[in-house]
Write a structure and sequence with these properties.
The protein has 73 residues and is mostly helical. Helices cover 42% and strands 8% of the residues. It has a domain at 5-36. The longest helix has 23 residues, at 47-69.
Length: 73
């Protein structure tokens, strides 16, 4: 069974869409790998920043929980 032929959204070349192809389904393997090879720059946070972010995330979770599960009177 042949693989479906797709056209790349970036370079407009045809390619076979294989099941284990990394990247996006509308991009050829060459265009998909360019994005994944970019170095990921991760910002290091100190203890105060981590604590502030953790508290903000907890507040977001609590607000979402109240919105989702509030009782209708």
């Amino acid at each position: 069974m042949p693989f479906p032929i797709k056209v790349c959204a970036i370079c407009s070349e045809e390619f076979e869409l294989k099941p284990d192809k990394p990247g996006f389904a509308n991009r050829c393997p060459e265009c998909s790998t360019e994005e994944s090879t970019d170095p990921v720059t991760k910002r290091h946070m100190d203890a105060d920043e981590r604590k502030n972010e953790s508290e903000a995330n907890a507040a977001r979770r609590q607000a979402m929980r109240e919105l989702l599960y509030r009782k209708e009177s």
